[in-house]
Amino acid sequence: MSRIAYVNGRYLPHAQAHVHVEDRGFQFADGVYEVCEIWNGHIVDMTRHLDRLGRSLTELQMDWPLERRAMETVLRETARRNRVKNGLVYLQVTRGQARRDFAFPKLPIPTTLVVTARSTSPSVAVKNSEDGIAVVTTPDIRWERVDIKTVSLLPQVLAKQKAVRAGAKEAWMYDKEGYVTEGASSNAWIVAQDGTLITRPAEKGILRGITRAAIMDYAATNGIKVEERHFTLEEAKAAREAFITSATMLATAVVKIDDAVIGNGQPGSIVSAMRARFHEGVEKLPLSVY
Ligand code: PDD
User: Fold this and answer.
1) Given this structure, which CATH class describes domain 125-280?
2) Domain 4-120: assigned CATH number
3) 181 lines ligand 1 (CB under 6 A)
4) Closest CA to 210 of 39, 49, 37
5) Ligand 1 within 6 A of 182 CB?
6) What is the value of pTM for the model shown?
7) Are strands 226-228 and 197-199 parallel, antiparallel or unpaired?
8) For 225-254, what is each residue's pLDDT tens digit?
9) Per-residue pLDDT at 1 exceeds 80
10) Does the beta carbon of 25 sit less than 6 angstroms from any atom of ligand 1?
């Protein structure tokens, strides 16, 4: 089955799905994106993802490419046309196509909207959940506005490549003071000896993850304490458990940070329970509403 992408109003086979050479996303990484999980034929936390998209657009003074309702339909329809039952739907909005010039185009131009969807491998998800993952560490060399979910991801590309080269699945970045900021494409968490979940405050230095928010809801429902505070790599390496959260990895145990083994080297009981019950509390909207 050929994969289908939505590009500016049309559903096209991937081979024909293109944006213009002078699209500002291509020229300047002048665009934003979202990734939503599709679970069992449902889009997970679409409301929160589109709320965050709205914020990213506002921060960069960009317009919505479609009304929000229409955007929801396109996300569902793209997933449906690709027959995704479990996987992800990706959307990207750029400032549009214009002659290359750093400043915004003088006359209003339509923003570009691209949506793709794909299935993910259940066996990889099971393996990640059973074995946990290793992470490497790397300095955070990003700009200050990492709260905006932009497609300007070169530092994360380099960080992830460092991880892959070391046989790890993720890279944890740390700031100039040695505090962990977040993963290249996930939020970073540790579990203290007393079971408290610790994650960096979202005011500065990280993306306010939607899965992070879902884990906070889970913790509140289940009487688990959460502390939003900075933590160092040393504290992380000595933690009872460590984990990452993202729309694609849910809550996944980190069992190794560089050469340090976390706990007994197996996913701990707290993250394993959170992962097993993750979908109980989240918003799940069916792909088909017809
Ligand atoms: N990445 N931090 C960064 C830098 C991210 O890129 C992501 C998500 C997260 C987690 O956010 P959420 O829980 O909303 O997925 C944190 C997505 C999955 C990606 O780029 O593919």
Assistant:
1) alpha beta
2) 3.30.470.10
3) no
4) 49
5) yes
6) 0.97
7) parallel
8) 999 999 999 999 999 999 999 999 999 999
9) no
10) no
